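Figure 6 in text form: structure in, sequence out.
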């Protein structure tokens, strides 16, 4: 009997599977992510938002946008136009410029909180709790339970309200000691205090997720082999265990960014976050949230609130897409 020859579609399918096996896991996941149109739209919006926030000083210096302190009392409360796409506020300040400067505020807070709480604290403590175990695990988990049991928003408000003057005083002393001026005026004390407060309450969830994964991995053969060869604990934690939980870490961080951004905006809305004259979304939304302002000048609320909603929604969409990519069996 003549041997059957595989049809071209079958050959193409086999070649595609062989090519996928030759690809690295990162390349495979990136290709899967690029096929998700909603996730790519979310990534584009998040990228534009953060690029605008990072480059706000450069845009102001180049004259593309105005300074957040520039006022024009001859053009107050103007509706959106070509000259002012987002309109102007009561002091004649360009709303588009203030939105971009507010994006800088959110960018600084989210990155600082992500690095300190989302990466340094949650990863280190989660790895130690899961791998070392014993009293170290008990201590970390009990401290996490204490932080988790506290009303985080109320505690953030109390911390910022009670320590703000002390932190500003410390930064003033730093200015006097180093001769570097402008730290207090730039809002650095507010950035520092909010980032530290958010990090203090934001590490618990990530640390618990990492701990649960480490508990499942620490008895596997490759970890036992590493221990048998005399590998040091830091090498086992960061060279062998951490790469194997990177998928869960990426998803957790992407979902956590939305919460960090929202918390910063809520704190400013309550008046204990970033203080004037530096703009922030919370302050812009608060100033435009009165009934009279909404009825007469809805654009003052619509643009900052719409951008904040789109940012949080984009982070949630990206987190859902990453969950589908990294854990396809859970779908």
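Output sequence:
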């Amino acid at each position: 009997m003549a041997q059957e020859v595989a049809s071209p579609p079958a050959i193409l399918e086999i070649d595609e599977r062989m090519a996928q096996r030759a690809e690295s896991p990162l390349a495979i996941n990136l290709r899967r992510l690029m096929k998700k149109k909603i996730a790519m739209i979310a990534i584009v919006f998040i990228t534009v938002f953060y690029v605008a926030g990072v480059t706000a000083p450069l845009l102001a210096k180049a004259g593309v946008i105005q300074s957040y302190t520039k006022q024009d009392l001859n053009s107050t409360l103007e509706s959106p136009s070509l000259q002012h796409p987002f309109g102007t506020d009561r002091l004649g300040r360009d709303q588009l410029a203030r939105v971009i400067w507010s994006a800088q505020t959110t960018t600084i807070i989210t990155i600082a909180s992500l690095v300190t709480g989302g990466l340094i604290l949650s990863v280190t403590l989660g790895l130690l709790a899961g791998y070392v175990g014993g009293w170290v695990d008990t201590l970390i988990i009990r401290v996490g339970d204490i932080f988790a049991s506290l009303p985080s928003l109320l505690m953030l408000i109390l911390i910022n309200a009670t320590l703000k003057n002390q932190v500003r005083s410390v930064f003033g002393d730093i200015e006097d000691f180093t001769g570097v001026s402008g730290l207090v005026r730039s809002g650095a004390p507010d950035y520092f205090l909010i980032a530290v407060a958010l990090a203090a309450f934001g590490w618990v969830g990530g640390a618990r997720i990492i701990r649960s994964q480490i508990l499942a991995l620490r008895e596997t053969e490759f970890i036992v082999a590493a221990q048998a060869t005399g590998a040091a604990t830091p090498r086992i934690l960061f060279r062998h265990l951490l790469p194997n939980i990177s998928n869960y870490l990426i998803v957790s961080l992407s979902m956590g960014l939305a919460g960090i951004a929202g918390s910063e905006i809520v704190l400013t809305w309550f008046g204990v976050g970033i203080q004037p004259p530096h703009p922030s979304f919370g302050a812009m939304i608060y100033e435009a949230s009165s009934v009279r302002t909404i009825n007469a000048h809805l654009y003052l609320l619509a643009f900052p609130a719409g951008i904040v909603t789109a940012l949080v929604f984009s982070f949630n969409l990206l987190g859902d897409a990453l969950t589908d990519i990294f854990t396809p069996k859970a779908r």
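Caption detail: DSSP finds 14 helices and no strands in the chain.
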